[in-house]
Fold Histidinol phosphatase.
Amino acid sequence: MTLELCDIVWSAGFRKIIKNVSLRVKPGEFLGLIGPNGSGKTSLMSVLAGIRPPDQGRAMLAGQDMKKHGRRKLARQIGFVEQQADTTDRLTAREAVALGRTPYLSMLSPWSERDDAIVERALGDVDMTHLADRFWHTLSGGEKQRVHIARALAQEPKFLLLDEPTNHLDIRHQLGLLELVRELPVTVVAALHDLNHAAMYCDRIAMMRDGELVGIGSPADILTSENLRDVFGVDATIEHGPNGECTVRYHTGMKKDRAA
Ligand SMILES: Nc1ncnc2c1ncn2[C@@H]1O[C@H](COP(=O)(O)OP(=O)(O)OP(=O)(O)O)[C@@H](O)[C@H]1O
Protein backbone atom coordinates (compact mmCIF):
# COMPACT_ATOMS: atom_id res chain seq x y z
CA MET A 1 0.00 0.00 0.00
CA THR A 2 1.30 3.45 -0.88
CA LEU A 3 0.95 6.89 0.66
CA GLU A 4 1.73 9.76 -1.62
CA LEU A 5 1.46 13.54 -1.81
CA CYS A 6 1.40 15.14 -5.26
CA ASP A 7 2.20 18.86 -5.47
CA ILE A 8 0.39 19.71 -2.23
CA VAL A 9 -0.43 23.25 -1.18
CA TRP A 10 -2.08 23.87 2.19
CA SER A 11 -2.91 27.36 3.43
CA ALA A 12 -4.09 28.85 6.70
CA GLY A 13 -6.09 31.93 5.78
CA PHE A 14 -4.17 33.65 3.00
CA ARG A 15 -0.82 32.26 4.11
CA LYS A 16 0.63 29.28 2.27
CA ILE A 17 1.99 26.94 4.92
CA ILE A 18 2.81 23.90 2.72
CA LYS A 19 4.20 24.86 -0.66
CA ASN A 20 4.08 22.41 -3.54
CA VAL A 21 5.28 19.34 -1.68
CA SER A 22 5.46 15.99 -3.45
CA LEU A 23 6.44 12.94 -1.45
CA ARG A 24 6.10 9.19 -1.83
CA VAL A 25 6.37 7.14 1.34
CA LYS A 26 7.95 3.78 0.51
CA PRO A 27 6.21 0.70 1.94
CA GLY A 28 7.97 -0.55 5.08
CA GLU A 29 10.31 2.39 5.51
CA PHE A 30 10.94 4.61 8.51
CA LEU A 31 10.83 8.13 7.08
CA GLY A 32 11.94 10.97 9.34
CA LEU A 33 10.66 14.50 8.85
CA ILE A 34 13.03 17.19 10.09
CA GLY A 35 13.05 20.98 9.93
CA PRO A 36 13.19 24.03 12.18
CA ASN A 37 10.23 25.16 14.31
CA GLY A 38 7.40 26.39 12.12
CA SER A 39 8.78 24.80 8.93
CA GLY A 40 5.53 22.87 8.37
CA LYS A 41 6.18 19.36 9.73
CA THR A 42 2.94 19.09 11.72
CA SER A 43 0.93 20.61 8.87
CA LEU A 44 2.41 18.13 6.42
CA MET A 45 1.76 15.20 8.78
CA SER A 46 -1.87 16.31 9.08
CA VAL A 47 -2.22 16.29 5.29
CA LEU A 48 -0.59 12.83 5.18
CA ALA A 49 -3.04 11.62 7.85
CA GLY A 50 -6.00 12.85 5.82
CA ILE A 51 -7.01 15.32 8.55
CA ARG A 52 -6.28 18.45 6.51
CA PRO A 53 -7.50 18.29 2.94
CA PRO A 54 -5.00 20.09 0.71
CA ASP A 55 -6.02 23.30 -1.11
CA GLN A 56 -4.15 22.16 -4.20
CA GLY A 57 -2.65 18.85 -5.25
CA ARG A 58 -3.64 15.36 -4.22
CA ALA A 59 -3.08 13.25 -1.11
CA MET A 60 -3.30 9.62 -2.20
CA LEU A 61 -3.68 6.38 -0.25
CA ALA A 62 -3.35 3.13 -2.20
CA GLY A 63 -3.44 5.10 -5.45
CA GLN A 64 -6.77 6.73 -4.62
CA ASP A 65 -7.47 10.28 -3.49
CA MET A 66 -7.92 10.27 0.30
CA LYS A 67 -11.16 12.19 -0.12
CA LYS A 68 -12.61 9.00 -1.59
CA HIS A 69 -11.71 6.89 1.45
CA GLY A 70 -14.18 7.22 4.33
CA ARG A 71 -12.91 8.26 7.78
CA ARG A 72 -13.30 4.71 9.09
CA LYS A 73 -11.30 3.20 6.27
CA LEU A 74 -8.59 5.84 6.67
CA ALA A 75 -8.43 5.11 10.41
CA ARG A 76 -7.81 1.42 9.72
CA GLN A 77 -4.87 2.26 7.50
CA ILE A 78 -3.34 5.33 9.17
CA GLY A 79 -2.60 5.78 12.87
CA PHE A 80 -1.69 9.36 13.77
CA VAL A 81 -0.20 10.41 17.07
CA GLU A 82 -0.44 14.18 17.27
CA GLN A 83 1.62 16.49 19.43
CA GLN A 84 0.14 17.41 22.80
CA ALA A 85 -3.09 15.51 22.24
CA ASP A 86 -5.15 15.43 25.43
CA THR A 87 -8.53 14.27 26.63
CA THR A 88 -10.82 15.53 29.35
CA ASP A 89 -12.73 12.23 29.44
CA ARG A 90 -12.40 10.20 32.61
CA LEU A 91 -10.67 7.21 31.03
CA THR A 92 -8.15 4.68 32.25
CA ALA A 93 -5.02 4.09 30.19
CA ARG A 94 -6.47 0.78 28.99
CA GLU A 95 -9.75 2.44 27.93
CA ALA A 96 -7.80 5.13 26.05
CA VAL A 97 -5.87 2.44 24.16
CA ALA A 98 -9.12 0.55 23.47
CA LEU A 99 -10.34 3.60 21.51
CA GLY A 100 -7.85 2.50 18.86
CA ARG A 101 -10.17 -0.41 18.06
CA THR A 102 -13.12 1.90 17.21
CA PRO A 103 -12.67 1.73 13.41
CA TYR A 104 -13.11 -2.06 13.55
CA LEU A 105 -16.24 -2.20 15.72
CA SER A 106 -19.82 -2.35 14.51
CA MET A 107 -23.13 -4.02 15.35
CA LEU A 108 -21.98 -7.01 13.31
CA SER A 109 -18.51 -6.97 14.72
CA PRO A 110 -18.71 -6.23 18.47
CA TRP A 111 -15.81 -6.12 20.92
CA SER A 112 -14.12 -9.55 21.14
CA GLU A 113 -11.30 -11.35 22.92
CA ARG A 114 -9.11 -10.51 19.96
CA ASP A 115 -9.65 -6.80 20.65
CA ASP A 116 -8.67 -7.40 24.30
CA ALA A 117 -5.50 -9.17 23.19
CA ILE A 118 -4.57 -6.37 20.77
CA VAL A 119 -5.06 -3.74 23.48
CA GLU A 120 -2.94 -5.70 25.98
CA ARG A 121 -0.18 -6.19 23.41
CA ALA A 122 -0.17 -2.48 22.56
CA LEU A 123 0.08 -1.58 26.26
CA GLY A 124 2.95 -4.05 26.65
CA ASP A 125 4.75 -2.69 23.58
CA VAL A 126 5.01 0.74 25.18
CA ASP A 127 5.79 -0.59 28.66
CA MET A 128 2.49 0.59 30.16
CA THR A 129 0.88 -2.68 31.32
CA HIS A 130 1.54 -1.90 34.97
CA LEU A 131 -0.27 1.46 34.66
CA ALA A 132 -3.17 0.22 32.52
CA ASP A 133 -5.80 0.83 35.23
CA ARG A 134 -4.61 4.32 36.14
CA PHE A 135 -6.81 7.26 35.14
CA TRP A 136 -5.55 9.39 32.27
CA HIS A 137 -5.37 12.62 34.28
CA THR A 138 -3.05 10.96 36.83
CA LEU A 139 -0.42 9.97 34.22
CA SER A 140 2.79 11.92 33.60
CA GLY A 141 3.44 13.60 30.24
CA GLY A 142 5.66 10.72 29.11
CA GLU A 143 3.18 8.06 30.27
CA LYS A 144 0.39 9.84 28.37
CA GLN A 145 2.58 9.92 25.28
CA ARG A 146 3.14 6.16 25.53
CA VAL A 147 -0.63 5.61 25.87
CA HIS A 148 -1.20 7.68 22.71
CA ILE A 149 1.26 5.51 20.84
CA ALA A 150 -0.36 2.34 22.18
CA ARG A 151 -3.75 3.65 21.01
CA ALA A 152 -2.33 4.12 17.52
CA LEU A 153 -0.76 0.62 17.61
CA ALA A 154 -4.13 -0.84 18.63
CA GLN A 155 -5.51 0.59 15.39
CA GLU A 156 -3.23 -1.94 13.62
CA PRO A 157 -2.48 0.64 10.94
CA LYS A 158 -0.38 0.12 7.83
CA PHE A 159 1.03 3.63 8.32
CA LEU A 160 2.02 5.04 11.67
CA LEU A 161 2.43 8.83 11.66
CA LEU A 162 4.15 10.21 14.74
CA ASP A 163 4.51 13.92 15.42
CA GLU A 164 7.51 14.36 17.72
CA PRO A 165 6.87 11.02 19.42
CA THR A 166 9.78 11.28 21.85
CA ASN A 167 8.58 14.54 23.41
CA HIS A 168 8.25 14.11 27.18
CA LEU A 169 10.01 10.74 27.18
CA ASP A 170 13.13 9.99 29.20
CA ILE A 171 16.11 8.76 27.19
CA ARG A 172 15.42 5.04 27.81
CA HIS A 173 11.85 5.40 26.58
CA GLN A 174 12.92 7.62 23.65
CA LEU A 175 15.31 4.96 22.38
CA GLY A 176 12.90 2.14 23.29
CA LEU A 177 10.07 3.79 21.37
CA LEU A 178 12.13 4.43 18.24
CA GLU A 179 13.46 0.87 18.35
CA LEU A 180 9.93 -0.48 18.81
CA VAL A 181 8.45 1.41 15.88
CA ARG A 182 11.40 0.49 13.66
CA GLU A 183 10.77 -3.20 14.37
CA LEU A 184 7.00 -3.04 13.76
CA PRO A 185 5.66 -4.36 10.47
CA VAL A 186 4.36 -0.89 9.57
CA THR A 187 5.49 2.07 7.52
CA VAL A 188 6.47 4.93 9.81
CA VAL A 189 6.66 8.66 9.21
CA ALA A 190 7.91 10.57 12.23
CA ALA A 191 8.63 14.27 12.75
CA LEU A 192 11.81 14.34 14.83
CA HIS A 193 13.76 17.19 16.36
CA ASP A 194 16.73 15.09 17.47
CA LEU A 195 18.86 14.77 14.35
CA ASN A 196 20.98 12.01 15.85
CA HIS A 197 17.85 9.96 16.48
CA ALA A 198 16.86 10.58 12.87
CA ALA A 199 20.34 9.42 11.79
CA MET A 200 20.14 6.30 13.96
CA TYR A 201 16.66 5.07 13.11
CA CYS A 202 15.47 6.46 9.79
CA ASP A 203 15.86 4.79 6.41
CA ARG A 204 15.30 8.16 4.77
CA ILE A 205 14.99 11.71 5.98
CA ALA A 206 12.84 14.46 4.45
CA MET A 207 13.93 17.98 5.34
CA MET A 208 11.59 20.98 5.40
CA ARG A 209 12.22 24.69 5.43
CA ASP A 210 9.53 27.37 5.34
CA GLY A 211 6.85 24.99 4.03
CA GLU A 212 8.99 23.48 1.29
CA LEU A 213 10.56 20.06 1.07
CA VAL A 214 14.21 20.95 0.48
CA GLY A 215 15.67 17.46 0.42
CA ILE A 216 14.90 13.79 0.84
CA GLY A 217 17.37 10.92 0.97
CA SER A 218 19.49 8.74 3.23
CA PRO A 219 20.60 10.20 6.59
CA ALA A 220 24.13 10.64 5.18
CA ASP A 221 22.76 12.53 2.15
CA ILE A 222 20.60 14.89 4.18
CA LEU A 223 22.58 15.40 7.38
CA THR A 224 25.46 17.40 5.96
CA SER A 225 27.24 20.36 7.56
CA GLU A 226 25.97 22.58 4.73
CA ASN A 227 22.33 21.56 5.23
CA LEU A 228 22.50 22.03 8.99
CA ARG A 229 23.99 25.49 8.54
CA ASP A 230 21.60 26.55 5.76
CA VAL A 231 18.39 25.07 7.13
CA PHE A 232 18.86 25.05 10.92
CA GLY A 233 21.48 27.79 11.27
CA VAL A 234 23.82 25.62 13.35
CA ASP A 235 27.45 24.67 12.89
CA ALA A 236 28.17 20.96 13.12
CA THR A 237 30.55 18.29 11.94
CA ILE A 238 29.15 15.00 10.66
CA GLU A 239 31.10 11.90 11.60
CA HIS A 240 30.67 8.89 9.32
CA GLY A 241 30.99 5.31 10.61
CA PRO A 242 32.18 2.27 8.67
CA ASN A 243 28.64 1.07 7.85
CA GLY A 244 27.33 4.36 6.49
CA GLU A 245 25.96 5.54 9.85
CA CYS A 246 26.44 9.19 10.73
CA THR A 247 26.57 11.22 13.92
CA VAL A 248 26.05 14.96 14.24
CA ARG A 249 28.54 16.75 16.51
CA TYR A 250 27.34 20.28 17.20
CA HIS A 251 29.88 23.03 17.66
CA THR A 252 29.65 25.11 20.79
CA GLY A 253 30.15 28.85 21.05
CA MET A 254 27.78 29.63 18.17
CA LYS A 255 26.31 32.67 19.90
CA LYS A 256 29.78 34.14 20.41
CA ASP A 257 30.72 33.48 16.74
CA ARG A 258 27.55 35.18 15.51
CA ALA A 259 28.09 38.21 17.75
CA ALA A 260 31.67 38.62 16.51
N1 LIG B 1 -4.27 26.67 11.70
C1 LIG B 1 -3.27 27.53 11.50
N2 LIG B 1 -3.51 28.86 11.36
C2 LIG B 1 -2.51 29.74 11.16
N3 LIG B 1 -1.22 29.38 11.07
C3 LIG B 1 -0.91 28.09 11.20
C4 LIG B 1 -1.92 27.09 11.42
N4 LIG B 1 -1.31 25.89 11.52
C5 LIG B 1 0.01 26.12 11.37
N5 LIG B 1 0.25 27.43 11.19
C6 LIG B 1 1.56 28.07 10.97
O1 LIG B 1 2.21 27.33 9.97
C7 LIG B 1 3.60 27.23 10.23
C8 LIG B 1 4.00 25.76 10.27
O2 LIG B 1 3.47 25.19 11.46
P1 LIG B 1 3.73 23.67 11.83
O3 LIG B 1 3.09 23.43 13.16
O4 LIG B 1 3.30 22.83 10.69
O5 LIG B 1 5.32 23.66 11.94
P2 LIG B 1 6.30 22.58 12.59
O6 LIG B 1 7.43 22.41 11.66
O7 LIG B 1 5.55 21.36 12.98
O8 LIG B 1 6.78 23.38 13.88
P3 LIG B 1 7.34 22.85 15.32
O9 LIG B 1 8.68 22.23 15.06
O10 LIG B 1 7.46 24.13 16.09
O11 LIG B 1 6.34 21.90 15.90
C9 LIG B 1 3.85 27.98 11.54
O12 LIG B 1 4.29 29.27 11.24
C10 LIG B 1 2.48 28.01 12.18
O13 LIG B 1 2.34 29.14 13.01
In short: The chain has one domain: 3-259. The pocket of adenosine-5'-triphosphate is lined by residues 12, 17, 35, 37-43 (CB under 6 Å).
